[in-house]
């Protein structure tokens, strides 16, 4: 079946860049998404990228998509303590159903 | 708009008990879904609905029932709770016929003893 994989943990120092990686399996996915989950809260959409794009930039966030390798990454520039959260990669499976990765817990150290 | 609301926030059940997790949205979204979130496994789709009167199974439907009698509400029923159903449950909704993202509720944390 479809599978989305992510590393589970990432630690960075405040002010550095964070890069969270994701691999997916369904090459027919139209959109790929990044969600953020803060402690005790639901998921919040950060950004998404259409599958015919290679890159999308939105303020401190840069999404890179390599369709050939089915690899998606999220770069957060100038990482702040408020960026500490779990980040989920998701691909659109069918209709409006998503397949989520396990989430990467980002810890920002002072 | 209140967005997507879920009740209760927390629940403790004994094995074999039944209960209903409530989900409501006031955005007139046709599509609604239920996910469960377990450590290290991300979110897995339980059931979904593309409109009132229509429901379908997701990846992990066993042990759960849903109904969609109105556009606004999409309750999830646990028929006979098991410890394996200890999880955090998220309801989501999205507008019809578009590729816009899903809006998630705050979650219900369920512990089955």
Descriptors:
heterodimer; A: 110 residues; mainly beta; 6-stranded mixed beta sheet; 5-stranded antiparallel beta sheet; 11 strands; globular; B: 113 residues; 7-stranded mixed beta sheet; 4-stranded antiparallel beta sheet
Query: Biggest β-sheet of chain A: count, sense, barrel?
Result: 6 strands, mixed
Could you say which overall geometry of chain B the principal axes of the C-alpha atoms support? globular
Based on DSSP secondary structure assignment, what is the total number of beta strands of chain A?
Answer: 11
End-to-end Cα distance of chain B? 36 Å
Oligomer: heterodimer
**Could you state the order of secondary-structure elements of chain B as H and E?**
EEEEEEEEEEE
Amount of beta strand of chain A: over 45%
Mean pLDDT of chain B: 91
Principal-axes shape call of chain A: globular
Tally of separate helices of chain A: 0
Portion in beta strands of chain B:
over 45%
- Approximate helicity band of chain A: under 10%
The chain-level structural class of chain B is mainly beta
What does this structure look like?
The complex is a heterodimer of chains A (110) and B (113). Chain A is built from no helices and eleven strands. Chain A has strands at 4-6, 9-13, 18-24, 31-37, 43-50, 55-58, 61-66, 71-76, 85-94, 97-100, 104-109. In chain A, the strands form two sheets. In chain A, strands 2, 4, 5, 9, 10 and 11 form a six-stranded mixed beta sheet that branches. A five-stranded antiparallel beta sheet of chain A has the order 1-3-8-7-6, with no helix packed on it. The relative contact order of chain A is 0.35. Chain B has 113 residues and is an all-beta fold. Chain B has strands at residues 4-7, 10-13, 19-25, 31-38, 42-51, 54-57, 64-66, 76-78, 87-94, 103-104, 108-112. In chain B, strands 2, 4, 5, 6, 9, 10 and 11 form a seven-stranded mixed beta sheet that branches. Chain B has a four-stranded antiparallel beta sheet with strand order 1-3-8-7, with no helix packed on it. In chain B, strand 9 and strand 10 form a beta hairpin. Chain B is globular and about 40 Å long. Chain B starts with a strand and ends with a strand. The A-B interface holds A 4, 8, 30-31, 33, 41-45, 48, 88, 92, 95-103 and B 4, 31, 33, 35, 40-45, 48, 50, 58, 90, 94, 99, 101-102, 104-107.
């Amino acid at each position: 079946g479809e599978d989305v994989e992510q590393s589970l943990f990432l630690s960075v120092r405040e002010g550095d860049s964070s890069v969270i990686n994701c691999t997916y399996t369904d090459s027919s996915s139209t959109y790929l998404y990044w969600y953020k989950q803060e402690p005790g809260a639901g998921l919040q959409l950060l950004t998404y990228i259409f599958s015919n794009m290679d890159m999308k930039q939105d303020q401190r966030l840069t999404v890179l998509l390599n369709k050939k390798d089915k690899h998606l990454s999220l770069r957060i520039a100038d990482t702040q303590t408020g960026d500490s959260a779990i980040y989920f990669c998701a691909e659109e499976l069918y209709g409006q159903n998503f397949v989520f990765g396990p989430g990467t817990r980002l810890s920002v150290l002072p | 708009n209140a967005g997507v609301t879920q009740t209760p926030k927390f629940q403790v059940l004994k094995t074999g008990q039944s209960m209903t997790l409530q989900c409501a949205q006031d955005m007139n979204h046709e599509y609604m879904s239920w996910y469960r979130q377990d450590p290290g496994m991300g979110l897995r789709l339980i059931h979904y609905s593309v409109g009132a009167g229509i429901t379908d199974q997701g990846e992990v439907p066993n042990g759960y029932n849903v109904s969609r009698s109105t556009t606004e509400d999409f309750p999830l029923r646990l028929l006979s709770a098991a410890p394996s159903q200890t999880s955090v449950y998220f309801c989501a909704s999205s507008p019809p016929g578009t590729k816009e993202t899903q809006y998630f509720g705050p979650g219900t944390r369920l512990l089955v003893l």
